[in-house]
Structure formats: C-alpha cells, structure tokens
C-alpha cells in the first residue's frame, strides 16, 4: 500500500472502554470453532475455543486463547503439546461437547482415540493438528497459546471436496453455518 | 468437566504437517473480519485481519496476527497503540480496502478521521477499539500482537439493535455473512 502523508482534518474521540462494551463488541465478531485437547499426564481435557487462528503457514503456526475460568486451562498451561480440531457444521456436537460444563467430555469412548504421542483426538473433526507449544502468554486472567503444527489429519486431502463443506461459526452466542449459500458478491 | 482416567483403547497417528496441508486446513476455518490501523509517526497504515479474537473481557484484551509480508506490518511492529475495527456485513468495503494491495487506503479523506491521540479511524465500522500494545511476539515470519483496549466507539450501544446486524466472515477465500438466516438449531 502507499502511505498518505496528508493529515485528515476530522478529529474523533471514543469513550473509555468497559468490560461490558468490550463483551458487546465481540459478541458480534464471528469466530471459527475449534475443539482443543491435551493431556499433561493428569488426564485428557477438551474445550471449545472460538479464538483459533492461523499465524503463519511456513512454518505452520497457530494461536488461540483460553480463559482461566475453564477447568481445562490448568492442563493446557502445563502441556507441551496440544491438538486443535477444526470443526465444520457437521461437527456441531463436538463444539457443544467442549462448551458444556459438568459433563464427562470423554465419556463416550467410541468418539475419541489417543495419538501415539498420547494426546486425545476426536477423529470426527474435519481436520486436526497436533502442535508443539512455542509460547504461552498470560493476559488478563487468560492464556494465549502459540504452537507449531507438527502432525495432522486433514480429511482425505481432496481440497475440492472441502469446498463443499459448510463452515461452523460462533456468532451472537449461537452456532451458525457458512457455505455457498452465504457467500457475498465481491472479492 | 470431569476427567476420565480410563485410557481409550484406540490409537491413531497423523501425517507430518506441511505448509500446504496447513493452508488447506485453515482455508475452511472461518474468521471474523477486522480492519487494523495504526500510525507510528510515519504515516497511517491499515490492513484487514481475520485473526482478531477476544482474549479477556476484564481487563479488555484482544489479539491478532499480521504477516511480515504486509506493507503495514513494519508500522504495526513499532507502534505502541493500534485500532481494531470490528466489521459487519455492511462494512465489506472496509474489509476489501484493507485487503487490496497497491491502493491508497487513505485516499478517500471522507472515509476516515484521526483520534485525538493520532491513530486513524474509519467511523463506518460497527465498532472500533483503541488498544495499548501489551505484547508483541514474532512467530514464523508473522507477528502476534496482544493489546489492552482503552477507548472505543461501539455504535449507539443498543445491544438489541446489534443483534439484527449481519456478521462478516472470511471463509474459503471469500466474504460470507452470518445472521438470523444462518443460525443452527442447538445451544
């Protein structure tokens, strides 16, 4: 992009930001949905996160954040590896599994397996990536985790087929779907 | 959640993760859309990011990542403050503005203003938040920025009205919209 050195004449100011304002603002900021799992040798944990994002493709690096209020966070804070499951609309049940309190998220033994390296994995997810934690950052009672992907299962790798799958979105405190029916005109 | 100590009998393994696999996997991971702006005293910059996420509400902390390949990244890496604009479907033009190369993103002076603190702001966005950078983390040629929100403009604060606005999503290399028409049954 080119830079503009001409100063805009208009001046604006906002208002001090409260936690309520912040929550309202982000409630309508859509997020993709991931199920994050780990096991730091004290039992498997799983939680649903809408903060997962790609940071870099080469090397493959991703990030997400977890609230300290989640019962899974202690394990995620001490684990050196994590698995992120990228969920599409067909995996809404996994999204709900990791978002529901006071249930045994591993109670259905047919739904999950162990990787050779020990982490729990839910094969029904469209894709999962096992990552090695690079950075762990405490911020405001939450923890930001940055990890490098080392191993994955990404369906059968037919990219064209993926294009027909509908995405899963968390928006306004509900699950939503995106696909060919929601595409906007434009770039 | 409760923890399961019974080991699952199933074992799985994945495949070594390549950059191509990673890109394919995340192409179908939906992301909300934000326009990030800053000015580190060398001219205003703006770029579109699909990695913005809330980290913590109290204190209000958010994060996003920027690729070092963006011309705006040098400024974002040296700026002590940033502004994130949370874009809805009505702000698709702002999303495209920050995603298009080789244009003057500040050429239309009627579209933006300056905050009293100097940062450029695009008032057409549903909401913007000015943040003070807390952490900057280099990861694989990209930079993760974690910031604490200090000032905002969030429409007219009628939460009910926000509920009627359609969200903007980046998915499968296209813009999509979510709203009451895309809501899935369930929690």
The computed structural class of chain A is mainly beta
Q: Tell me the β content of chain A.
A: 35-45%
Radius of gyration of chain A: 19 Å
Helix tally of chain A? 4
Question: What's the rounded overall pLDDT mean of chain A?
Answer: 90
The total of beta strands of chain A comes to 14
Largest interface: A-B, 122 and 122 residues
Oligomerization = homodimer
Which residues of chain A sit in consecutive blocks of at least 5 with pLDDT less than 50?
none
Kindly report how far apart the N and C termini of chain A lie. 18 Å
Q: Share of helix among residues of chain A?
A: 10-25%
**How would you sum up the global shape of chain A?**
globular
Largest sheet of chain A: 7 strands, antiparallel
Q: What is the spatial order of strands in the main beta sheet of chain A?
A: 5-4-8-11-12-7-6
Order of helices and strands of chain A: EEHEEEEEHEHEEEEHEE
